[in-house]
């Protein structure tokens, strides 16, 4: 038979309905498991947020690259040669310069001079950055269409333009991006 003191210590550990309380070891284990769950949830959320950031950066880079291609396609497609006030089409192995008609925010065309070249690792035209991490630019100019198409490395006629321009953007990583732009109405 239990003494009265033993009975009181048992009752002191028991709750009002007779349920027994948690020991210190059980509380520490529960806190450790809870902390582990919080840590894993934090790492999962951090990983998801990092993935979202990388996707957003990739989307922004792709948008920038596509906008640059649209700009160049529009510029080459509306080339201005042979009209009063138009500058000559100047084609060098690593740069190209010409006048073109471009849309303004007001909704009409104005003449712009485009000087496409590499400046401090960036592909630029009219002061607008079209690409980053560019080591070099290679330009070729189409003289004749057809099966035996003839490309030249330099355009020397100030009164006309080539049929097309092929740009090879050589990245610092060694990747070469080749783009072909057809010339619009020729003067």
Question: How would you describe what is shown here?
Answer:
- The structure is a single chain.
- The chain is an alpha+beta fold.
- The chain has helices at residues 4-13, 24-77; strands at 90-91, 96-103, 109-119, 122-125, 128-131, 134-144, 150-152, 164-171, 176-182.
- The strands form 2 sheets. A 5-stranded antiparallel beta sheet has the order 1-2-3-4-5, covered by helices on one side. It has a 4-stranded antiparallel beta sheet with strand order 7-6-8-9, with helices on one face.
- The protein has a domain at 59-182.
Radius of gyration: 35 Å
Helix and strand string, N-terminal first? Answer: HHEEEEEEEEE
Please state how the strands of the largest beta sheet are arranged side by side: 1-2-3-4-5
Seen as an oligomer or otherwise, the chain set is: single chain
Give the N-terminus to C-terminus distance in angstroms.
117 Å
User: What is the overall number of helices?
Assistant: 2
Overall SS class: alpha+beta
């Amino acid at each position: 038979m239990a003494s009265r003191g033993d009975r009181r210590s048992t009752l002191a550990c028991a709750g009002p309905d007779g349920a027994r309380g948690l020991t210190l070891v059980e509380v520490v284990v529960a806190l450790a498991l809870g902390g582990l769950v919080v840590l894993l949830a934090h790492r999962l959320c951090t990983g998801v947020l990092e993935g979202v950031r990388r996707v957003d950066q990739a989307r922004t880079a792709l948008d920038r690259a596509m906008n640059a291609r649209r700009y160049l396609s529009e510029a080459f497609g509306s080339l201005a040669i042979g009209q009063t006030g138009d500058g000559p089409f100047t084609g060098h192995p690593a740069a190209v310069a010409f006048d073109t008609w471009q849309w303004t925010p007001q909704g009409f065309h104005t003449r712009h001079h485009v000087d496409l070249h590499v400046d401090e690792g960036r592909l630029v035209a009219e002061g607008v950055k079209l690409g980053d991490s560019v080591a070099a630019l290679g330009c070729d100019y189409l003289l004749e269409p057809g099966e035996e198409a003839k490309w030249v490395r330099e355009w020397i006629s100030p009164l006309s333009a080539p049929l097309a321009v092929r740009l090879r953007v050589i990245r610092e990583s060694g990747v070469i991006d080749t783009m072909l732009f057809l010339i619009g109405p020729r003067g």
